[in-house]
Amino acid sequence: MNLHIQRGLMALTLSLTMAACGGGNGGTTADGSLHLAVIPKGTTHEFWKSIHAGAIKAQREYEAQGVAVRLTWKGPIREDDREQQIQVVEGFLSQGVNGIVLAPLDASALVRPVQEAKRAGIPTVVIDSALASGDAVSFVATDNEKGGALAADRLGQLLQGKGRVLVLRYQEGSASTEAREKGFLDRLASQYPDIQIVSADQFAGPTRDTAKRASENLLNRFGGQVDGIFTPNESSTAGMLLALQDVGKAGQVRFVGFDSSEAFITAIRNKQLDGVVLQNPFEMGYQGVRTMVAHLKGEAIQPRVDTGVTIVTPDNLDTDASKALLNPPLSQYLP
Questions:
Q1: φ/ψ bin of 288: left (φ > 0), alpha (ψ from -120 to 50), beta (otherwise)
Q2: pLDDT tens digits, residue range 258-317?
Q3: What whole-number distance in Å separates Cα of residue 39 and Cα of residue 52?
Q4: Which pTM does this prediction carry?
Q5: CATH 2.60.40.10: does it fit domain 144-278?
Q6: N- to C-terminal Cα distance for the chain?
Q7: Cα gap 182→15, rounded to integer Å
Q8: Contact 257/276 with Cβ under 8 angstroms?
Q9: Homologous superfamily of 3-141+281-307 in CATH?
């Protein structure tokens, strides 16, 4: 049978099933609870663990208020496995969840599954990275272009407005990191015209290992010509840091990354990393679940929720605000 016909029949079957069992549009499961699927881009990086913890915080708060919320956390292992994430979404549709909180790893590839969810009466809140569709009921995320601009300002000031910079991009199709890369390049072009971009067309790929290999290739090619480096997410920053350490250039090249980890904090203290732009993934997971439950209860919600962005440098590393972002209370919520 034609694949499009199969999927059309599946969507119709799901719609009928959901109508029969009362799921979606604020309905509850058989035990009276709201069942939410929380689907990250991946499951290995610290960023996603923070989102998971924030989601559980929201769930516990609702339970304390007498609102029964059940969360199921499931996502692809690798952040480039579009087909697996699509299958995860479709699997939850067949289970008849009440709502989906989704971090789409590809802005276009996840459009159809979210459309199918909408047709089945299951609303979606998109978090972290935008979807090329208006079918989600809300978008909860960082202002990613602003984050890229913050990184550009930090690097531009360190280089005193002159020098050669390379950008190691993350992965094609990832709307959040593409916005960071755009914000970085646009700010450099407008505010630091004497800074030259020597490379901005190479991709790190989905893991620390792929990022390290891509970083090694860039450093082999441009290492003697580079004064500054920008990387737009946790795995690309980790891979570049390892590559710089391996070749003895850590601390010799100005380097601004994105997201947090214990290794990044150590690198900042050791003057091997000049700053990291921080999102608030804990708040993202928290607000994603809060927004979905409010929608299912028929309450008014915002179409766009900004969870904030800042930059941490050696100068503000030990402030209370930075510590709160760098050390989210994961142990309180995750096993």
A1: alpha
A2: 999 999 999 999 999 999 999 999 999 999 999 999 999 999 999 999 999 999 999 999
A3: 9
A4: 0.85
A5: no
A6: 44
A7: 39
A8: yes
A9: Response regulator (3.40.50.2300)
